[in-house]
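Checklist before submission:
- one chain only
- standard amino acids only
- sequence pasted in full

Submission:
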Amino acid sequence: MFYGALLLTGANLALRLASMSFQVYLSGRIGAAGVGLLQLILSVKLLSFTLGSAGARTCALYLSAEALGRRRSLRPALRGCGWYCLLFSLPTAAGLWVLTPRIAGGWIGDAAGEAALRAFALFLPVTCLNGVMTGLYTAAGRLRTLVTVEFLEQGCAMGATFALLARQGAGESAGACLSVALGSSLAAALSLGVLWALRREGPPLGREDRTPWRRVFALALPVGLADDLRAGVNTVENLIIPRRLALYAGTVNAMADYGVLHGMVFPVLMFPAAILGALADLLVAEFSRCASHPGQVRVRYLARQGLRVAWLFGLAAGGVLFAFARPLGELLYHSRAAGACIRLYAPLVPLLYLDGVVDAMCKGLGQQSANARYNLLTNLLDVVLLWLLLPRYGMGGYYFSFAATHLINFALSFRRLSRSVELGPLGPLFRGAGREDFRWLRGLVGK
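Returned file contents:
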């Protein structure tokens, strides 16, 4: 797990760096308002991807890890998850294509995003199947192949987008959004083709079972339904932010403010999380393997170590971001507003990172339903708070809603994890190997 996490960490950091650099380039080309429009389009695209996938990636990862733990073939899981994914992605793509004018003009409020949404609809089944293949490769431990293909996909996406942007004029938001949509979609198609061509190297030899249709639907449907509800609420949340923020008396350009926060600040805050993202993916597969054998000794040990790493890393990352917030804002975006927002949200970084690792552990332990309920509850609460607070308090109301809902979500998820593996209230953070590492923290708590 250590070497696998190390490999995925390096790859994720490189990919995140390339993605953030591209985001910086886009912000300088189309401005904060254009970045805000792109973020709204990507939010709708994410909702479509979630509806089309319907939990297929998580199901593929779980079934593949389980098959590996029992030394059986991966082909039945791949076949079942692939057809299941097509069953939902094709109707979703057709619906997005038909509803594109209404979504762009009515929901987003700008018809400039219509062409980009149609491009995403055209390639939606391919993108969903690509997610299934990445889940299978992650569970099979074929990390080097997966990392290589991810680099190829990112390079293809950026190259195609740059080539298309070269034909667009500066400040053309519609052309820039369409270029991003076409570039990422073509890259997803290339990634799927490469992963499909290399698929026969991964499945182990052994007895091949029938396609587990009942297990596929039993595992994927609850996850997919929960993900759909959460993605739907999250999309509603993103769409109402500029509209409700425009009602605040101190707002000059609501779309620009939204673009600064979601298109500039959050990518910087979550950039170090690429390290923990690799750990989280491996923990899902490892916890699934351990769940097929009796005993919780290894599960408890991995939970404590994972939470300990996430907590300490989050503290370090949040401190660095807080200290260098203003230089980062000036260096990356030439914006004092971006630097001020980075400093404002930096103290929440430890909570965000720890919550991501806790969610991954709960998925690996089969607690997807409970975890999804918590996410849906906090997202609904977030929508209500944003609807009420944004017109009255502006971005201050957004900050309060963001901090409160993420704190509630973490508390509920951590409580579920503690009960599942019998950790105790704060055991994972203060117990385990290396007591000397926590002497300073114990002294602080004692004072």
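Reviewer check: The chain has a mean pLDDT of 79.
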